[in-house]
Design a protein that fits this description.
This protein is of the alpha+beta class. The chain contains three helices and eight strands; from the N terminus they run ααββββββββα. The longest helix is centred in the first third of the chain and has 22 residues.
Length: about 160
């Protein structure tokens, strides 16, 4: 008695079509939305920021806000604070100096668009502007840096 190959071929074809449909369904993901970019950017910046091992630094906050401002606040033990802030639509260039383990992320603007303020400083409170914000970072490999640059470019375009 001869056995037909048609049922076996049918099974293989159905199985292949199911695999192909599943692959197509999960390979095309909708475009990343603002909240995902924002969450990822804040996570990346927080995990990568590497303040100098200054004994007097009590805490720091580095955030990218919903209204596309990048803000860094450093608080020292005696209450002195340093504050840096700028809107990403003013961002001109992102450069990285260093290797995968440690380096400096330089965020540049076209003009003096970065707000620099100090509070509770014994020398007096200072308000000034800058064109470069240098962030010491760690564990910034090429893929992570590219992704962060893409996120910042995305928010720069949204802020315009």
């Amino acid at each position: 008695m001869k056995k037909s190959l048609q049922p076996q071929t049918k099974k293989i074809l159905v199985f292949t079509l199911i695999l192909l449909a599943g692959w197509l369904n999960y390979s095309f993901r909708p475009q990343t939305d603002d909240q995902e970019w924002l969450s990822w950017s804040n996570k990346c910046l927080t995990e990568s920021y590497n303040p100098a091992p200054d004994v007097k630094l009590k805490k720091w906050e580095l955030t990218l806000t919903n209204d596309y401002f990048l803000r860094l606040r450093k608080t020292y033990q005696h209450g002195r604070q340093e504050y840096f802030s700028f809107n990403l639509h003013r961002l001109n260039q992102v450069q990285y100096q260093g290797d995968d383990k440690a380096g400096t992320l330089e965020l540049s603007t076209n003009a003096d668009d970065i707000i620099v303020q100090t509070y509770e400083d014994p020398k007096g409170d200072i308000d000034s502007m800058s064109t470069v914000l240098e962030l010491p970072v760690r564990n910034m490999n090429a893929a992570r840096l590219d992704s962060l640059k893409n996120a910042l470019s995305y928010f720069k375009a949204k802020a315009l």
